[in-house]
Design a protein that fits this description.
heterodimer, A: about 260 residues, alpha/beta, Rossmann fold, six-stranded mixed beta sheet, 10 strands, about 35% helix, globular, B: about 280 residues, mainly alpha, MetI-like fold, two-stranded antiparallel ribbon, 11 helices, about 0% strand, binds adenosine-5'-diphosphate, binds magnesium ion
């Protein structure tokens, strides 16, 4: 057991005995225990349907959008129980990026970046907004491409640019953690590479938790990797160690492509 | 081989529909021709309706006005109710039992035949209008407008609910992930996304109100003058045709057909516009 799940000292996120079921008695995530290292990229891998998205979405409490879902266990963000905070606060501290780029089509690029503030009814001075927009777009290396068309709709951008815009939107609140659910699966290889490089750079200031069912992506860019199977966190360790020397048979089989 | 036969059958079927519609337009046009020949463009802007032999004079303006006023009353009443109900069923309480029950009721209401609304209006709404002191018999523009509103609310609600349900889940989730509350999501995502579709549903509902006949004929009071207030009696294009067609011949018949043609064109345009807008929304 000790060899299977690495113990993270001073984790930003600490997941304790987490189980999640959509329908009573049927668990999509079973008793997951894991800490997430600050300023690192942690990948969550596993075959389709193994519970990666379900786990990820509990971390910013997006699961609460489903009426019948049941969650047992605890999640701590910097030692604070997220289930005791307001969902609004938790979602500002833990940003999320989705599988398909989803900028708000009725908003300009500029408004998309500060959408979090607008949605929450937070009023900012114009120069403060400008500053946030510029900083966030620079963080995602999109500023030079769009600085002259900030008033245009975000949906005019290419898929890769849209996804980077969505990352900028998630960064605008300066969250502690960014959750990404297969953020490159709808992108072409060049756009994928850009997003990957970007995420590696972003870990200097943020903690990144990345769901991917692309093993090579996890190998390329993550510091730590989790392998999930049938709702269970099977193995979790430093990415290098996990890929070179997996302990569990199922991890090994997955990594060698025996199932996917 | 069988594919060829299917193709031929489909082709013939659609051809028949084209023939029927073309035939309808042509016969309406030839029926309306004498009236247009006699009165020309004045037919549309005159409020004269005089069937006295020798002094026959017909104009459609009061009916066009009656139609537009009743439909506008209907849409004004319909708008807030249909809007809130569709948000309620389509988003706020989406997936709950309550929403399902109300949704089913709305769909049921949308399917009730016009004559039933007319009867209800006659026995319930009309006396209410009398009690409220709006007018002595309870017949009139306002009564017809209200019954039209009641008839188009389920229709508009049903379409806008579907439109609201179509707003992509991904966008709503994006907003929630930024800390938005359900109210924020409705205001900032659902309504802006669904706006043009919801608007279209009102256009379609308006088109329906314009052509609605039976219930209106029973409640509008059937007078052929231009209404001076919404408490006056009047006639719509549809109701004057239904009311006078039986005993009409000659120039009067032709004038009624001409009104039918105008109605055909107006509803056709409005529905066409609605359909195009719905397509753009998709
Ligand atoms: N909204 C939902 N309602 C019911 N079951 C769901 C729902 N979403 C996911 N599941 C089920 O939960 C399990 C895990 O799904 P998910 O977390 O999406 O897996 P992954 O992201 O690893 O592909 C699957 O068996 C899936 O069918
Ligand atoms: Mg998933």
């Amino acid at each position: 057991m000790k060899d299977l799940i690495i113990k993270i000292e001073n984790p930003v996120l600490d997941i304790k005995n987490l189980s999640i079921s959509y329908n009573k008695g049927k668990y999509a995530v079973t008793n997951v225990n894991a800490g997430v290292k600050k300023n690192s990229v942690t990948a969550i891998m596993g075959p389709s349907g193994c519970g990666k998205s379900t786990l990820l979405r509990a971390i910013n409490r997006m699961h609460e959008l489903y009426p019948n879902i049941e969650v047992k266990g605890k999640i701590f963000l910097n030692n604070n129980d997220i289930f005791l905070m307001s969902s609004i606060e938790i979602r500002r501290k833990i940003g999320m990026v989705f599988q398909r780029p989803n900028p708000f089509p009725t908003m300009s690029i500029y408004d998309n970046v500060i959408a979090g503030y607008k949605l929450n009814g937070i009023r900012l001075k114009k120069n403060k907004k400008d500053e946030i927009v510029e900083k966030s777009l620079k963080d995602v290396v999109l500023w030079n491409e769009v600085k002259n068309s900030l008033k245009k709709k975000g949906t005019f951008l290419s898929g890769g640019q849209q996804q980077r815009l969505c990352i900028a939107r998630a960064l605008a609140f300066k969250p502690d953690v960014i959750l990404l659910d297969e953020p490159t699966s709808a992108l072409d290889p060049i756009a994928t590479k850009k997003v990957e490089q970007l995420l590696i750079k972003l870990k200097e200031n943020y903690t990144i938790l990345l769901v991917t069912h692309n093993m090579s992506q996890a190998a390329r860019m993550s510091d730590y990797s989790m392998f999930m199977y049938l709702g269970e966190l099977v193995e979790y360790g430093k990415t290098k160690k996990l890929f070179i020397n997996p302990v569990d048979k199922r991890t090994e089989e997955y990594l060698t492509g025996k199932f996917s | 081989m069988s594919e060829k036969i299917t193709k031929i059958i489909l082709f013939i079927a659609s051809f028949i529909i084209v023939i029927i519609s073309a035939g309808m337009v042509l016969s309406l046009m030839s029926g309306a021709a004498p009236a247009f020949k006699e009165f020309g463009f004045k037919f549309i802007i005159s409020t004269e309706w005089n069937p006295t032999e020798g002094k026959e004079q017909y104009g459609a303006l009061q009916f066009i006005a009656g139609t537009i006023i009743t439909s506008i009353i209907a849409i004004i009443i319909c708008l807030p109710l249909a809007f809130s109900t569709s948000l309620f069923i389509g988003e706020y309480f989406r997936g709950t039992k309550l929403a399902k029950i109300i949704g089913t009721m709305v769909d049921m209401l949308a399917g009730i035949p016009s004559i039933v609304y007319g009867l209800w209006g006659f026995y319930v709404l009309r006396p209410l209008i009398v009690d409220l002191g709006f007018n002595a018999q309870g017949f009139g523009i306002i009564t017809a407008g209200i019954i039209l509103a009641i008839m188009i609310i389920p229709y508009a609600t049903s379409i806008s609910t579907e439109i609201i349900k179509m707003v992509s889940n991904e966008l709503k989730e994006a907003a929630y992930s930024l800390g938005a509350t359900q109210k924020d999501v409705i205001m900032a995502v659902v309504i802006p996304e669904a706006r043009s579709g919801i608007f279209t549903s009102y256009i379609l509902a308006f088109g329906r109100a314009i052509g609605e006949t039976m219930a209106v004929t029973m409640l509008i009071g059937n007078t052929n003058i231009i209404p001076k207030s919404i408490f006056d009696t009047g006639n719509t294009m549809a109701s004057v045709i239904a009311n006078q067609f039986g005993e009409a011949d000659g120039l009067k018949l032709s004038s009624l057909i001409a009104i039918g043609l105008i109605l055909f064109v107006i509803t056709g345009l409005i529905n066409g516009l609605g359909k195009i807008m719905i397509k753009q929304f998709n």
